[in-house]
Design goal:
This protein is α+β, with helices and mostly antiparallel strands. The chain contains 5 helices and 3 strands. It has one domain. A hairpin with a 4-residue loop joins strand 1 and strand 2. The longest helix is centred in the middle third of the chain and has 23 residues. The model has no long low-confidence stretch (mean pLDDT 92). This is Signal peptidase II.
Length: 151
Amino acid sequence: MIYLFIMGGIFAADCFLKWWIEKKPDDYGQEIWGGRILLQKSHNRGAMLNFMEGKRQFVAGISVGITIGTAVVFAALLRRKGEYVYKAALAFVLGGALSNVFDRIKRHYVVDYFSFCAKYERLRRIVFNLGDIFIFLGAFLVFSRRILKNL
């Protein structure tokens, strides 16, 4: 049951932050954490880095399909004992994915709101949201679990 709360918490936190940033002007920008992170408003109309932005319905369909598939695996996994890291990883992925899918369906774009103030310009231009971070973290945990299990 804790994994459903984790998933719901990620979804709720990301939705709140998206709501908050959407109230800001389009040119909003504020550095936080000693200039390490830049808060800003960005609308992603495609997949990651606006890839396929001209095919929003296709991207939304793929996103929904992958999210449903992950949810089915997660639901089956919740019935099994153990597998705590795998369950947490999928809760992370689903919390972030559901928030982004919700955006794609409701707004027709995903709201991103922070970037890292990195040394390299290419890295500074990538704008994330909390859901993205948890999708990456969850995917990393799944990948790490697979690698460690096969050693």
